[in-house]
Amino acid sequence: MKILLDAMGGDNAPDAVIKGVAKAIKDIEAEVVLIGKEYVIKERAKELLGRDLSEISDRISIHNAEETIEMEDTPTQAIKSKKDSSMVVGFNLLKEDQGDVFISAGNSGALLTGATLLVGRIKGIDRPALAGILPSYHGRLVLMDCGANTNCRPLNLLQFAQMASIYMANTVGVESPRIGLLNIGTEETKGNELIRNSYQLLKKYAKELNINFIGNIEGREAFLGEVDVVIADGFTGNVFLKTVEGLGKLVKISLKESMTENIFAKIGAVPALPSIKRFAKTMDYKEYGGALFLGVKKPVVKAHGSSDEKLFEFTIKQAEQFVNHKAVDELKSIYESELNKEKLDEIKQYITTLEV
Amino acid sequence: MKILLDAMGGDNAPDAVIKGVAKAIKDIEAEVVLIGKEYVIKERAKELLGRDLSEISDRISIHNAEETIEMEDTPTQAIKSKKDSSMVVGFNLLKEDQGDVFISAGNSGALLTGATLLVGRIKGIDRPALAGILPSYHGRLVLMDCGANTNCRPLNLLQFAQMASIYMANTVGVESPRIGLLNIGTEETKGNELIRNSYQLLKKYAKELNINFIGNIEGREAFLGEVDVVIADGFTGNVFLKTVEGLGKLVKISLKESMTENIFAKIGAVPALPSIKRFAKTMDYKEYGGALFLGVKKPVVKAHGSSDEKLFEFTIKQAEQFVNHKAVDELKSIYESELNKEKLDEIKQYITTLEV
Questions:
Q1: What is the mean pLDDT of chain B?
Q2: Could you read off the pLDDT of B8-39 as tens digits, one per residue?
Q3: How many H helices and E strands in chain B?
Q4: ipTM for the complex?
Q5: Closest Cα partner for A245 from A199, A306, A185?
Q6: CB A103 within 8 A of CB A315
Q7: Is the minimum CB–CB distance between B265 and chain A shorter than 8 Å?
Q8: Counting beta carbons within 10 angstroms of the beta carbon of residue B189, is it exposed (0 to 12), middle (13 to 18) or buried (19 or more)?
């Protein structure tokens, strides 16, 4: 297996990427190809690790790419004009099967655009979307779409539910994961037009599509272990995701402060620190790694923009597992089948009756 | 001042209401009128407090109402048919100036419908909305709309911003509170059509309307003290609110568990318990009381459905302050002025140019 890694993407690139690879390589079997300015990577590696990457492992190599897509670049434009950027080169290697997965912490918009334009959508999938992992009571929660599609149609939410089910069954090993539709109430009459129509669509087709749809879920219940997957349009999903991130930060800061607000608290806290640290960890969304861009022909992982070496290490290991579990092949075989084509036409027909 | 209180509303009514009043009355100057089945309230009071409410304070009285609007009732239907329900009676007393504020923890939909139908919108306000208070770094955050309006137009979000500013300036005493528009990015091109148009509208009219608009805000930053008010449509706002509630619950459970997962953690945690409890408190949205329904002619407070006696006590005190600060009168004088009428027409005209 070959993991393609954008060495220039993210707030802490290339240093955090290089250190992350150096750590991850010990625990994975795959090769890792760092894509970016070769001389920069080599120079930084020597500086950071005291030796060449090749000395760390013969499974680490560098593929030169002279350009870099910056955070402020316009996605489509950047993908089309910066042909020799680490991201575009990475996507082309992935497309030409010179790699099995591409990871980047760079410009999110460019990553999604590039994946769709260069790697291509799986036939039958209307909109690929980001599946992210969040903390939840005694486990984790998959959120889809995390923000790839600001404007969605009911068909998209149905397919998000289907893709997320297949992903969880294949990768996380959860048989028939419980799928909830993010809404402001549990009754099927609740929510805006998109959500109400999506509910009806899921209700009608869930069984046939092997989606274990348990109905609407409110943010209040989402974390308490009642669902494995939360489905939302990209706008609502992204608000949900960032709210979790923001509150996670608030928790860490406030907890730290209340533990050190006075000398008694300081002393008192010391014996409890291990459990407090463990708790803070479960609240840190970063512990849950990158998001998968499901619906494109090959595995693409969006690493967190502010990833540090620890997170890159984790995301690389996660990517290897993701490829091993072949969720993307599974998605392809299901969506590209004749059967699905017929079903899709039927579903689209049914939707027209809903949205009138 | 007279506080009208729905004695039959909420999961823990009437007991929690009765106990809450008995506690709150010591700390407030207002009279409190409990509205509901008189014989039930009297009986429960004797049972819970060991004496009649009148013996606790001559500022507590009961106004009989034979019916109760249940959680599963259809709002509009319930308001129209249950004329002698504690909620409808409460609204009518409020309308007839036999009270200065109405508090209920009952059926939310019925509360909002009743307030709009019976008390009436302030002229010039297109849609009243719920302003709720949330935890934030070293302070609190006002969220508007918390969920009264599932489908909104840009004009609504502009007016939410204006109402929230006036409320904060008058009640919380924050001069020119910083208003953020809840979005999935900070750039003005981000978000769905509603949010993009609302951004343009706020950008153009904020100054004139004395709104300190600081631009888009992401859930990530919302809690870190960068804004005083978060503006959102009722759907997104409600998702945001319930996500905060849900994560708050998760925090409390997980923290408790990690503190007691083994004997060492148990012992270790003991000295830190005060600061941990204090922290858990800041994470508990319930500590922040009821939500105000702004935009109707008189003060209406939506208490949390699962309010316990402590929360009712707090919400009652909060309501007295709210009335004292006359935010509703301020809203009326602003919106009902001729000047605002002209301005409103101009704004509506401008909106048509946006939404084309």
A1: 90
A2: 999 999 999 999 999 999 999 999 999 999 99
A3: 15, 11
A4: 0.82
A5: A306
A6: yes
A7: yes
A8: exposed
A141 forms bridges with which residues in the sheet?
A: A134
B106-119 pLDDT, tens per residue? 999 999 999 999 99
Do the bridges between strand A31-36 and strand A2-6 make them parallel or antiparallel, or are there none, so unpaired? parallel
Element (H, E) at B261: none
DSSP A282-327: HT-GGGG--EEEETBSS-EEE--TT--HHHHHHHHHHHHHHHHTTH
How does pLDDT run across A166-208, given as a tens digit for each residue? 999 888 778 899 999 999 988 888 899 999 999 999 999 999 9
pLDDT of A268 over the 80 cut: no
Give the mean model confidence (pLDDT) for residues B174-186. 93
Smallest Cα distance from A231 to chain B, Å: 13
Q: Quick one: average pLDDT of B197-223?
A: 94
Structural tokens at position A68: 């870099």
Pairing of strands A291-294, A300-302: antiparallel
In this prediction, residue B74 carries a pLDDT of 92
Contact of B63 with B35, CB cutoff 8 Å: yes
Q: Using the beta-carbon criterion (under 8 Å), do A269 and B275 form an inter-chain contact?
A: yes
Q: Which residue has the tokens 């409808």?
A: B88
Residue B321 in tokens: 């302050």
Mutation target vs A (from B275, B285, B286; most A CBs, 10 A cutoff): B275
Q: Ramachandran region of residue B124, left (φ > 0), alpha (ψ -120 to 50) or beta?
A: left
CA B40 and chain centroid, separation: 28
What are the φ/ψ torsions at residue B149 (nearest 5 degrees)? -125, 100
What is the identity of the amino acid at B7?
Answer: A
Q: Which amino acid is at B207?
A: K
Residues 6+ apart with CB under 8 A from B96: none
Residue A283 has pLDDT above 70, yes or no: no
On chain A, the residues whose CB falls within 8 A of the CB of B234 are 184
Q: How far apart are CA A95 and CA B349, in angstroms?
A: 50
Q: Full-prediction pTM beyond 0.80?
A: yes
Residue B273 near residue B103, CB atoms below 8 Å = no
Give the contacts of A138 (CB within 8 A, at least 6 positions apart). A225
* pLDDT tens-place string over residues A141-164: 899 999 999 999 999 999 999 999
Q: What does the block give as tokens for A347?
A: 């579903």
Beta strands in B250-313 (DSSP E): 291-294, 300-302
Is A241 part of the contact surface with chain B (CB cutoff 8 Å)? yes
Q: What kind and span of H or E run contains A141?
A: strand A139-144
Mean pLDDT of A254-263: 71
Which of the four pLDDT bands, split at 50, 70 and 90, describes residue A331? very high
* CB burial of residue A269 (10 Å; 0-12, 13-18, 19+): buried
List the 154-183 stretch of A: residues with Cβ below 8 A of B: 182-183
